[in-house]
């Protein structure tokens, strides 16, 4: 038993330093940066498709009520503004090459992190409220043509969907992206210290 305790004490005092080469770390960072860029582009493409879909509904659907026009205007405007803000964030990480200007890219990555935090917190609620108001205004005309049980089902589904996305989905996405960007910033900071040595 004493031998085991002795081995255990040696094991506890022994520290193993894991050294990853700067090339390996750079490969990992490059892969993660490309993943963030791709996700950002896919988000922009999804928002652009939403913009086109809502605009085409307005173009091809015979809208009679002023409330529907007002609702679609609010929805299209909020999607357009949110897409523009997402594009501004995308430019922060898309324009800089981290292999040529690592310090500039690190600063852009930190700005991107702040930008995403703002999008997921303050601006998200403005976007959600605007979409909800626009959808409510559109429902006045669109739902009156449907049966009562379908009206209630659509309203409940829409309300549930907004609550689901605003609570669970937003928090999970925000946490995952925050951890991913923080880890990437940490890697770039370690890389910059390795290159100084």
UniProtKB/TrEMBL annotation:
| Taxonomy, superkingdom | Bacteria
Give the record's keywords alphabetically.
Membrane, Transmembrane, Transmembrane helix
What are the transmembrane regions?
A: 40-60, 66-85, 123-143, 149-169
List the protein's name: Uncharacterized protein
Q: Which organism is it from?
A: Pedobacter quisquiliarum
């Amino acid at each position: 038993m004493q031998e085991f305790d002795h081995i255990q004490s040696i094991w506890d005092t022994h520290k193993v330093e894991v050294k990853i080469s700067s090339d390996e770390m750079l490969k990992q960072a490059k892969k993660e940066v490309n993943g963030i860029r791709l996700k950002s582009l896919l988000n922009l493409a999804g928002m652009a498709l939403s913009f086109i879909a809502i605009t085409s509904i307005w173009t091809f659907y015979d809208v009679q009520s002023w409330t529907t026009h007002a609702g679609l205007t609010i929805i299209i405007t909020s999607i357009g503004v949110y897409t523009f803000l997402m594009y501004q964030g995308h430019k922060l990480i898309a324009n800089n090459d981290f292999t040529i200007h690592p310090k500039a890219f690190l600063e852009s990555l930190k700005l991107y992190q702040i930008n995403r935090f703002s999008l997921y917190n303050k601006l998200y609620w403005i976007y959600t409220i605007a979409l909800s108001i626009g959808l409510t205004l559109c429902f006045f005309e669109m739902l009156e043509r449907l049966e009562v049980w379908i009206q209630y089902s659509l309203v409940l589904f829409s309300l549930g969907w907004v609550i689901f996305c605003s609570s669970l989905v937003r928090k999970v996405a925000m946490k995952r992206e925050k951890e991913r960007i923080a880890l990437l910033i940490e890697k770039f900071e370690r890389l910059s210290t390795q290159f100084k040595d």
